[in-house]
Sequence to fold (162 residues):
Amino acid sequence: MNRFRSMNQIVMADRLRATIGESRLLALLAAYDEPRGAVLPLVVALRDAGIDIDLDAITWIAQTCQTSTAIVQGAISAFPELNSDQDTITVCDGLTCRLMGAGVVQRLLRDRLGEDRVCTSACQNACSTAPALQIRGALYGALKEDALTALAQRFESSSETE
Fold:
């Protein structure tokens, strides 16, 4: 029996399964005691393949991992870098980054780019370059005010041309 409700969901499920590949999908699921352990690895695999994590993808991941869409959405929300919005700047809010000025970084970027474009994450494991942030998957660290200003200007101009 097929767990998907509509033809669109069936087509989407087939597309996502083909994107990851059957052997890779089975390996991801087998790597965990429970299928729900593969939620984040599946999200990362889909993102790496250029798939946006929209409601259809979330539904497929939930069904594949035998869990609810709420669990999948909760897992994704804990990692802003997995957010579908590629124009979001994710500032590390780990202890070292906070001590090294992550709050100043957040304020400067939010003032320049707006509240909706800047979010925080748990430690990004770049403590030696604190404060750190990610933009479109690229990690930036040891940012002083002049470098932050230049980065914000570059980000502003690239957003205006899109």
About this structure: The helical segments are 7-20, 22-30, 39-48, 55-64, 69-77, 95-99, 102-113, 145-160. The chain has two domains: 7-78, 89-160.
